[in-house]
Design brief:
This protein is an alpha+beta fold. It contains 6 helices and 7 strands, in the order H-E-E-E-E-H-H-E-E-H-E-H-H.
């Protein structure tokens, strides 16, 4: 074999970059299925040929583990995540101090019901950042004193933050926004 006919990697890359046939430059994508607080998500990242990147985190509807994670589970996860002994005594003491014979935190669970993240950056780092996150807490009935339960209860508590205007994402969040609820009456 004649050594003059062997192509180098940099030579092949130059041909691909300067292809007279007009082939697109190569983009690359990686993706993963992940779980956060028992909820499943897909995350994908694209490295653009012209520079820059796109990241998208989206929920996988219908693939939630039942009910999220308890406070005790979250404390244990914090300890395991760091791989070393983390001082969670202060957090544990707060929970213990808040407990009462007719109030317990054993059934309180947190669950992420929406996680949407869209980043699209050019090679200079400029671009779009959109997000929507929603956390639901259940099992709160057990922390309400019995004397209050006869009058009121909290079945679940939800916190939502977003900056996206994408209707598909907002619809999946099932937000109870005043302007939408009152929309029919204002016409």
């Amino acid at each position: 074999m004649d050594a003059t006919n062997v192509m180098t990697v940099s030579g092949a890359a130059a041909i691909l970059r300067d292809d007279p046939q007009g082939a697109d430059k190569m983009n690359a994508m990686v993706g993963a299925e992940i779980s956060i607080l028992g909820s499943r998500f897909h995350i994908g990242a694209i490295k653009k040929a012209e520079g820059g990147y796109t990241v998208l985190l989206i929920p996988r509807k219908g693939e939630l583990e039942e009910g999220g994670r308890t406070l005790a589970d979250l404390i244990d996860s914090i300890k395991k995540m760091t791989g070393k002994e983390v001082d969670t005594k202060e957090l544990e003491d707060i929970v213990k101090d808040a407990e009462h014979p007719d109030r317990t935190f054993d059934k309180v669970k947190a669950e992420i019901t929406m996680a949407f993240l869209y980043l699209d950056r050019d090679k200079d780092g400029k671009g779009v950042s959109e997000y929507a996150f929603q956390l639901k807490v259940t099992g709160l009935d057990d922390i309400i004193p019995e004397s209050v339960k006869t009058f009121a209860s909290i079945d679940e508590f939800e916190v939502s933050v977003w900056n996206t205007k994408r209707e598909k994402v907002l619809k999946e969040m099932d937000l109870k926004r005043p302007e939408e609820y009152l929309e029919d009456e204002e016409e």
